[in-house]
Amino acid sequence: MHIYIRFWILLVVWLSGSMTLSSQTIETITEDGAWCWFSDPRAIYAGDEENRQVVTGWVTKTGDVEAASIELSTGDISNKIIYPELQIDDHNNPAFLELPDHNILTMFTWHGGKNGVIQSTTTEPGNINTFGQPIVFKPKTKELLDKYKRETYTYANPFRLQKESNKIYAFGRWIGYKPNLITSTDDGKTWSDPQVVITSPELDTNNRPYVKYYSDGGSRIHLVFTDGHPRVEPLNSVYYCYYENGAFWRANGEKICTIEQLPFHPTDATVVYQATEEKGRSWIFDIAADDKGYPIIAYSRYPRLKVHDYYYARFDGSQWHDHKIIYSGPWFPEDVPDVTQREVNYSAGLTLDSVDPSVVYFSHVIDGVFEISRGETPDFGKNWGITPVTRHSEYDNVRPFVPRYQQPGDKKMVLWMQNRSYIHYTIYDSSIKYMVFP
């Protein structure tokens, strides 16, 4: 009885708070920018105690890769092109990592091809205008290419583990069309040889597991991943593992393998969601951890062609609790007459607040337009209180993201794409919006 009373009290609080959220000002970082959702963190909190900012980045419709910073105390915005005319493709957005001296490392790639991985580092702490000349490198070895056959570079995901003397772990879809891993012990000046992390049991160079990563920067990196692309894999399922202390582990703490024993297969990890034809194939959107270090995962299911459902899965130390959040709508790319839609699994997106993963931000259809909402659950996903972030919009609002590495005292913020037009990941006219909450 007390649980239900508490739930309804919280619901009243959420409903009364909806006026507060929707009354906040929507700000624009750039009128020309787009991003995908597999190069992350695409936004981070950074800076010393006195000078806090959010650093983020995107790809313009002409293919420039840009970085930006938002000063939290003043709201001032700085923008800098860090690689002009790289490629017109939203997969190429930069990911960011703050180094121990408060300089910022950024990493990004072209979408496919053999060009390699790109990185740049600021020369003044926190000053994105001091990003240096981009460095291009190709994480590969002859031995790895001989074994995994395919050389192609897409995505970058850098993380720093303080409990490993600030060693950097960077992941991407590289050799073999598979998730790869490289490490650096000198702030990205030099890198180890790559290793394939996840592969199909029998090598298939057309198979590509998709991975989302999360770390609080301490000792652990969480991975949630799929068999492959839902357009290709009819039973695309969701799996979880984490890296810690030189090895990869299942959710229950059983060891999968050491780094030296990589790669492993998807089914070697923990199954979060086993797809069936009835329940639908899936794709992943975000991962975070609760205060006990247990994973929380946000993902989508596609039980029918135009039905995209958002789900919230939480591990409690012994089992998964998996609950539907909401129906989000169909795909968000525009349909062109007499042209088959190529990206029927492009959900509008959802993201976890990594500081408080009982909170999600998601994009869903309201009155024919994709809008952003905030959801909060008092009971680990069973019930949701929903408050609006955007409403009555002229254009679709998609792919929200909450910046990582928030510290006490930092203003809460959510960012997202707003599309004047989005036909394909190479044909878009988008802006990046954000809202700061009290």
Give structural notes.
By secondary structure, this protein is mainly beta. It has one domain (2-436): Prolyl oligopeptidase, N-terminal domain (Methylamine Dehydrogenase, Chain H, 7 Propeller). Helix content is 6%, strand content 43%. It has helices at residues 2-22, 142-148, and strands at 27-30, 43-46, 53-59, 65-71, 77-83, 95-98, 104-109, 117-121, 135-137, 154-161, 167-173, 179-184, 195-196, 211-214, 220-226, 238-244, 247-249, 255-258, 270-273, 281-289, 295-304, 307-315, 320-329, 350-352, 359-366, 369-376, 385-388, 396-401, 413-424, 427-436. The strands form seven sheets. Strands 14, 15, 16, 17, 18 and 19 form a six-stranded antiparallel sheet that branches. A four-stranded antiparallel sheet has the order 1-30-29-28, with no helix packed on it. A hairpin with a 7-residue loop joins strand 7 and strand 8 (117-121). The longest helix is centred in the first third of the chain and has 21 residues, at 2-22. The protein is globular and about 55 Å long. The model is unreliable at 1-20 (pLDDT under 50). InterPro entries: Sialidase_sf.
